[in-house]
Amino acid sequence: MRTMSAVMRSLRGAAETPEPGHEVAPRAAVFAPAVPRRRGAADVWLQVLEVAAWCTGTAILGIVLAFVLPFLSITNLFLLPVVAVSLRLGLVPALAATAIGLLSGMLFYEPFLAIEVSEPRDVVDLAVFAVIGVTLSLLGDGLRRTTLALRRRQDDLSSLYALSHDMAGAADRQALLAVLASHLSRTVDHPVAVIDLGSQSAAEGAPVLPEAVRAAVPEVLPATEHETAIIRSGAEVWVVAAIGQASGQPLAVAARLEEADAADGEAMGRIRSMLADAASSMERLGVAHALEQQQLRDKAEAVRNSLLDAASHELRTPLATILGTLTALRQAPPVEQEGPLRDIADLAADECRRLDRVIQTILDAGRIRSGEIVVRPTVVESTDLVDVALRHSSLRLRDHTVVRQLPADPPLVSVDPVLVEQALVNILENAAKYSPAGTTITVLVEARAEQVAIAVTDQGAGLAPGEVDEIFGRFYRGDQGRTIAGSGLGLSIARAFVDASGGSISVASDGPGRGTTFTLLLPRQAAQDDHADDL
Q1: Where is region (Disordered) located (predicted)?
Q2: Angstrom distances, CA of residue 225 to CA of 241, 244, 251, 278
């Protein structure tokens, strides 16, 4: 069920079963805690089945690997379901997966397929597994809760922004009431009518109000300034709330519930709270609409950034562990002597390094947002920057032909080499990503009067005329890039790093399918000045 705002989601009222006639129920406190949904037996059994499936699959994998790689510690494989279950289901299922993994791991020690451990080394191994399993369960559950909370908040803000946008586009008063009625109907998942008591009419498209309800609304409305009222009409129950005045005329909201819904205290409390809060929400949307739109965009951006930063930090530690494990595995004699296994280990390690660079890109974006970029200008040869960037991008460029057009006497530049090298890496990987395999990527270094130009030209997708001005925007993905994996942050980070070093970056393209050229202009350092510094 969608909600209209983060405030509305937190509103929960303690509702009572309605009596015949109508009654007035107090409005819930704005910061009342949400009533958790009770988990049914079906949900519990589904979680049990999922935990069992993860552990069974891991056990089967362990049996296979026990014969293929007898030197591998199979017990550690059971950390995989612990991590997966903690991120998907929470703490208790993850602890259950840890216990199952602990028991299952015993089967792979001598005596094989027996829950019996005789060697002290194996006992220590299982104890370490238990500690790591509990730790991963706690960390995974914390990350899961944080992620879900951030997603709910972003959904709330998006929903409120959509309402403000629709209300701004309403042509007249009746259309405005219809927009609000439609949105509230989706929010509470029940038919909602917005009533204009000035003409005693409901908004267009709203459910038809029974005459008894229509006649009772003016009687109960004066008592609902900060409350909701319940009006019964046969098998229907209507929850009514005043939502202030528009153009001097009072407005009210009425939500229609069936008898079964009215008996649900949690649902009734939520609907009462939402309707009672509609007045203040409507006023906020109308007073400063332009400011509200900007605030919502900023909040949504902050939620997304918080989610990215949290996920990046949480992923980096296990990624380092995985990379270290793969490195040790790669150096093990049985793997070193087996060509296919060695290649698999190398490929997995390369992909881990690539993922680490993606995480670093997200963290760099956070540094840019917070203004924490530290620039350390250094006089370096421009060709050295190119060589380092090409070396770091070698995995991405392996399917392309790289042509270097470098001067015999490399010009010097005064920049932060770390920032500029990372910017070049982002541009080179972008060129490789959007260029077909086998095409040529050209890197040109050219000395100018007061600047040094480094140009990267590809034969890839190219840009439409309108994309040239937007390509460096954060999270921007062109039409041709929607089918290609990526974060949309690389080029924006490249521009920020180059700008911080005192340079500039531009892009040119002859059109879609005709390639792209990115040009970095860096401040040139005269050779004699560099020699004077050495003296």
Answers
A1: 1-21
A2: 8, 8, 11, 12
**Residue 239: which of 251, 253, 250 has the closest Cα?**
253
Q: What CA–CA distance (Å, rounded) separates 65 from 62?
A: 5
Cα separation of 168 and 166, whole Å?
5
Q: Which domain holds residue 71?
A: 41-168
- 279's CB contacts (< 8 A; 6+ apart) are 241, 242, 243, 244
Examine the pLDDT at 518 and tell me if it is beyond 70: yes
331-371 per-position pLDDT tens digit: 888 877 777 887 888 788 877 877 777 777 677 666 666 66
Q: Are 404 and 520 part of one and the same domain?
A: yes
Contact indicator for 66, 108 with CB cutoff of 8 Å: yes
Q: How many CA atoms lie within 13 A of 445 on its CB side?
A: 19
Q: Which residues pair with 525 in a beta bridge?
A: 412
**Count, residues in the chain:** 535
Mean pLDDT, range 401-413, rounded to an integer: 91
Alpha-carbon Rg for the chain, nearest whole angstrom, is 31
Q: E strands of 284-429, at which residues? A: 378-381, 401-405, 412-415
Measured between alpha carbons, how far is 522 from 503 in angstroms, rounded to an integer?
Answer: 4
The SS3 assignment for 457 reads strand
* Residue 534, both tokens: 């050495």
**Residue 49 and residue 161 in one domain:** yes
In this structure, which amino acid lies at residue 190? H
* DSSP H helical ranges for 227-264: 259-262
| Distance separating alpha carbons of residues 454 and 445, to the nearest angstrom | 5
Q: Are residues 53 and 135 in the same domain?
A: yes
Which amino acid does the sequence have at 431?
Answer: A
Does residue 263 share a domain with residue 332? Answer: no
Q: Is the peptide bond before 20 cis (omega within 30 degrees of 0)?
A: no
Q: How far apart are CA 493 and CA 472, in angstroms?
A: 8
One-letter amino acid at 531 equals H
Average pLDDT over residues 134-159: 83
Burial of 62: CB neighbours in 10 Å, binned 0-12, 13-18, 19+? buried
Distances (CA, A) of 7 to 85, 152, 230, 273: 30, 12, 23, 10
The span from the CA of 102 to the CA of 127, in Å, is 9
Tens digits of residue pLDDT in 91-109: 888 888 888 887 777 776 6
Q: pTM value?
A: 0.41
